[in-house]
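Why should sequence recovery work at all? Because a backbone constrains its sequence more than one might expect. Tight turns favour small or flexible residues, buried strands favour hydrophobic ones, and helices have their own preferences. The token representation captures these environments compactly. In the example below, the structure is given first.
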């Protein structure tokens, strides 16, 4: 199940079980890493304390890589599958070299 132009499956988190567990039990950590990668900067403790919005991060990833924007769908999916999206973003940026 792929969404838009994302190369990684939304429900492919079991491909990286360590990240799946981190994303499930410490989602602020994964979200902080992803947000810092998208912004092309170092991750700080403030990133984790001020847990980034997965929807806004997804929109930023779409814009950065020229993907079709789908705000309503992304908003709905972030409300239901936010933890999965966080892990998907991490895998997606890993595949793209974080850039």
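From this structural description, the recovered sequence reads:
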């Amino acid at each position: 199940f792929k969404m838009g132009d994302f190369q990684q499956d939304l429900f492919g988190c079991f491909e990286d079980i360590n990240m799946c567990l981190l994303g499930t039990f410490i989602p602020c950590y994964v979200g902080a890493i992803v947000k810092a990668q998208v912004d092309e900067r170092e991750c700080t403790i403030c990133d984790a304390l001020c847990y980034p919005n997965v929807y806004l991060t997804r929109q930023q990833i779409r814009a950065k890589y020229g993907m079709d924007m789908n705000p309503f769908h992304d908003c709905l999916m972030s409300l239901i599958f936010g933890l999965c999206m966080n892990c998907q973003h991490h895998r997606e940026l890993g595949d793209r070299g974080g850039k």
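A few observations help interpret the result. The chain has a mean pLDDT of 89.
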